[in-house]
Amino acid sequence: MVEYRRAEGHYDRLPALAADLAARKVDVIVTQGGDSTTLAAQQATSTIPILFHTINDPVATGFVASLARPGGNLTGVSMMFAELMPKRLELLLEVVPQARVIALLVNSEELSTERVIGQVQEAARAKRVDLRVLKARNTESETDAAFATLVQRQADGLVLGPVGFRPQIAALALHHSVPAIAPQRDFPDVGGLLSYGASNAAAYYLKGIYTGRIL
Questions:
Q1: Which 3 state secondary structure label does DSSP give 6?
Q2: What's the Cα-to-Cα distance from 100 to each of 66, 106, 114, 156, 173, rounded to whole Å?
């Protein structure tokens, strides 16, 4: 039997929901929706196996001891978000080779933001392009403001960091004629130029395989 719990956007309910699952002594807990759900499950039980997927470094977040030997009761899939940022910049520059100023849009509240910035800054120096970092929370108003800054700074292209998938970003990039690359494969479907990143569908498939092995 599958027990399903949904917080409906209220993250303060996550600890109680995780504790309820642990109290029911389920055989395995599969988390989604960000690291906050995995953290709640981790705090609720040290014995029930927990399967997660994350865009952050699972070692740095304290979910596992190492990628090769996770240890403890947590295992899962790392999307290697930050590690793929230099490749995204490289692909964008192949499409827009004349670009001299590149903007990087990140979510100021995301755990991986500083690692993402560091990865792209190093790659930008190697490619000899000027990088302008724009920080915005996942709100329409802050995203609009970030694009206004992008246009003011005359960016030739845009690399999207951990900002979530929102058609608003693709629409703004199209409206301002700014070539943009995102991690999500749906980005070009809604007007964006390029996408490059790990497959969410593949991540869930792997989690299903791991769950089957545990059970």
A1: coil
A2: 38, 20, 23, 7, 17
Arithmetic mean of pLDDT, 173-201: 91
pLDDT in tens, 190-203: 889 999 998 888 99
**For 196, what's the count of Cα atoms within 13 Å in the CB-facing half-sphere?**
15
pTM exceeding the 0.85 threshold for the entire prediction? no
Structural domain boundaries enclosing 30: 11-79+200-214
Report how many domains make up the chain: 2
Say if CB 134 and CB 116 are below 8 A apart: no
* Alpha carbon distance 166, 186 (integer Å): 10
Residues ≥6 apart with Cβ < 8 Å to 100: 129, 130, 156
Whether residue 186 sits in one domain with residue 111: yes
Tell whether 56 and 88 lie within a shared domain: no
Do 45 and 142 sit in the same domain of this protein? Answer: no
Q: pLDDT of 9-61, one tens digit each? A: 556 788 999 999 999 999 999 998 778 899 999 999 999 999 999 988 899 88
Q: Is residue 188 part of a domain?
A: yes
Q: Which of 149, 140, 153, 147 is nearest to 176 (CA)?
A: 147
